[in-house]
Write a structure and sequence with these properties.
Keywords: Oxidoreductase, Peroxidase, Signal. By secondary structure, this protein is mainly alpha-helical. It is about 35% helix and about 10% strand.
């Protein structure tokens, strides 16, 4: 199990190491001028751009929003272009729902060393670095639980077996999944990242000038906010929304999927406006633009320090981070910026980070009312922000006191069956949808990532079994039902598997 976790950690470390070299200390202070052939000149500016373009003057599109994801390994598409991967014998992988239900246990084991704030801060980091283009497109591939005939070309519905222990009771044979948008005329296809790939609080400021301007007051350097009961909240979204019962105008709606995730966005929103107010008092002659950029600059610097020196050492291990040059010992200024290192987020980072978080989510969320603990199902909070403002302190107290679950192969029943169910009896299987997304990306097989991370490949099931000292063969037996050989194991099937 330890070696499985190490592979998962290594995938995240590799992705973060690539991103970090261009995340810190990015300024564009050199004069405007031409760059490499075929690219536009970067403007002269003291401040990082909103879309992260020109973080490298030699390569202005490195890390820029709207560019393709990087990859740790080449894709494994069946036809070499875009078809979902197949197994080594040429047959299709079984349904992602079948893998989710039969391989991954429903169980919760509390982790006394981590609180829920760890999970939702990790979600904020993931949102900052990755937003797959097309992931929110309102295309329907299923109707009344059945596959739509002649569905749109981007449809890749998650098929449900007729004997599924839960969905079959409601005659549900299809869960909606729409393939991600890709860069035109590329082979193999390359998925597009709508977020900037640098740690720059894009979930707060946006990833384009037009989006950022909608979020700004354009006066005093502040972000738009309304003050109620002595504290600031985002302004209402004039366009409304279908994903929540309360609609705020924000750069990334994923920040407000739950009241718990909204807390991280709110902290940085309020901090930006506090900084802008203080800077205006100290520098009354500064323009709105300078106040905004200086407040943003400080806010991002604080955020980056928290991520790399306070949060990630708890997740990846401080020694591991120093070894991989993600952080440095001592307090002296250090920078190893490399203008030729592409910091673009990897598809694997998004594909691994989300499940990394999900297995730790408990099925019920605690919040405090008059010093007493109350609890509600996780699914009841999805898209439910009606009580955010009246109960913000209650939610935040819960985030800083309630334990997460251990990072293992088990998930809460809420996450696997009931999310976003509305008034229906069943909702989405988010784990199955993550597996489906992994196939959409065409990720390489697990053994290939082991090699990429400097670990030995498994040649046989017996070798796999021996490595992890499985006391009883249940986990191996379940995997062997759906994967003919160890070489068929995909990226998300193994990092979570353990003996149960």
């Amino acid at each position: 199990m330890q070696e499985i976790k190490q592979t998962l950690v290594n995938v995240i470390v590799l992705s973060l190491a690539v991103s970090r070299v261009a995340s810190w200390f990015v300024t564009n202070t050199t004069p405007s001028g031409t760059t490499s052939a075929g690219t536009a000149a970067c403007p002269s500016s003291k401040y990082r751009s909103i879309d992260s373009s020109c973080s490298s003057r030699q390569n202005p599109t490195f890390g820029k929003a709207g560019e393709p994801y990087a990859r740790l390994l080449p894709p494994n598409y069946a036809n070499g272009i875009s078809s979902p991967p197949v197994m080594t014998n040429g047959s299709a992988y079984v349904s992602a729902r079948t893998i989710s239900f039969n391989v991954f246990a429903i169980d919760e084991v509390p982790d006394p060393n981590n609180t829920l704030l760890n999970i939702f801060f990790l979600q904020a980091i993931g949102n900052d670095l990755s937003l797959p283009a097309g992931s929110e497109d309102p295309i329907q591939c299923c109707a009344d639980g059945q596959v739509i005939p002649n569905a749109p070309s981007r449809c890749y519905p998650l098929l449900i077996a007729s004997n599924d222990p839960l969905y079959s009771w409601f005659n549900i044979r299809c869960l909606n999944y729409v393939r991600l948008l890709t860069k035109p005329s590329t082979q193999p296809v390359e998925q597009i990242n709508s977020a900037s790939s640098l740690l720059d609080l894009s979930f707060l400021y946006g990833s384009s000038v037009a989006q950022s301007n909608k979020l700004r007051t354009l006066s005093g350097g502040r972000l738009q906010a309304v003050r109620r009961n002595g504290v600031e909240w985002p302004i209402p979204d004039p366009a409304g929304c279908s994903w929540s019962n309360v609609c705020y105008l924000v750069a990334d709606r994923r920040s407000y999927q739950y009241p718990m995730s909204a807390t991280v966005h709110l902290l940085f929103l309020r901090e930006h406006n506090r900084l802008a107010n203080q800077l205006k008092l100290l520098n009354p002659s500064w323009s709105d633009e300078i106040l905004f950029q200086e407040a943003r600059r400080i806010n991002i610097a604080q955020y980056q320090y928290i991520v790399y020196y306070e949060y990630l050492p708890r997740v990846l291990g401080q020694e591991n981070m120093i070894k991989n040059r993600l952080i440095f010992e001592g307090t002296n200024f250090a920078s190893d910026f490399n203008a030729f290192q592409n910091p673009s987020s990897t598809g694997e980072f998004g594909g691994v980070l989300v499940p990394f978080m999900q297995s730790q989510l408990p099925g019920s969320i605690n919040f405090y009312v008059n010093d007493s603990v109350q609890s509600s199902q996780l699914s009841s909070w999805a898209g439910n922000l009606a009580s955010l403002e009246s109960s913000f302190a209650s939610f935040f107290t819960g985030l800083t006191t309630q334990s997460t679950n251990l990072m293992d192969s088990s998930f809460s029943i809420e996450w696997k069956n009931f999310m976003y169910r509305g008034n229906a009896a069943l909702g989405q299987d988010f784990l199955a949808l993550d597996i489906q997304r992994m196939r959409d990306y065409g990720f390489a097989r697990y053994n290939d990532y082991r090699s990429r991370c400097g670990l030995s490949r498994y040649a046989t099931w017996e070798a796999y079994n021996a490595t992890f000292k499985v006391a009883c063969p249940k986990t191996i037996d379940r995997l062997r039902l759906y994967y003919p050989t160890v070489d068929d194991l995909d990226l998300l099937s193994v990092p979570r598997s353990k003996n149960r």
